[in-house]
Design goal:
mainly beta, about 280 residues, Jelly Rolls, five-stranded mixed sheet, six-stranded mixed sheet, 1 helix
Length: about 280
Amino acid sequence: MKHRKNQKKIQMWNPLRLLSERGAGGTPSATPPPRGCRGNSGAKNLKRATRPWMVSLAGSLVLLGSAALISLSSIPETAGASPSKSGTSTAFTVSGMDNIWGAGLTTAPDPGGSGGGVLPFVAALPEGTKTVTFSHVTGSVSFGKRGESSPNGPDGNLDSGFNTNISAYGGISGLKDTEHYFYLVGIFLDGGQPAGPPPTLNFTNHHSFKTLAPLEGQVFFVGDGRTGTGKGETQQFMVPKGATDLYLGFADAGNASGPCGAYGDNFGSLSGHVNLNS
């Protein structure tokens, strides 16, 4: 039995821009911090670097242990992205046991215990893919045994009573959200995990963005791919330069906090289409 786990709109934002525009005291800084290295013997093509990096942005980024955290509320609205041409559409099915921290690995990790689940769904990105969108995402999943937790749809569980605060692992960021838990998430990679994890994003009350530009290895909210649950505009996700793969899965941990794990009692699945646009 698993322990209990604990929209201002934005048009488009890029964490790299945020890091370069605001320093520790709000002073502009044009020098991005170096990337670090965290060991993970299961990673493919894990890049080398000297040490993990941490940054502090007043009012927008704080340190949680060794993980940097970006608050979406600190990111200003900017002009929307240029329209993309329609491309290919790929059907997907994602199980509640699909461990997003297994992206780029050969075995699903279980540093938090209670089951690492299975490797996440992956879609290869054709050369020239600039954005991805999602459509017809349906189904239900649960983060606990049947009868012990209420199944939820792709946008997550609002009444779980848990605060999502899952830490980074290997080259993959963590995830924070004090309102929703266990929704469909994604990650872009370029064939292997980054040398060190990028900053963790905080999606508390920030599910209604129109365009999102995540970094490689950064866990991001996908949900049903619309600005509202089952309604609203189609959200657009910008593909990081050099990314070759999109992974889809779920973020889970014992008590919804700390290292990933606790996938062993999850059930259900979501299905839909991911649209790859050039």
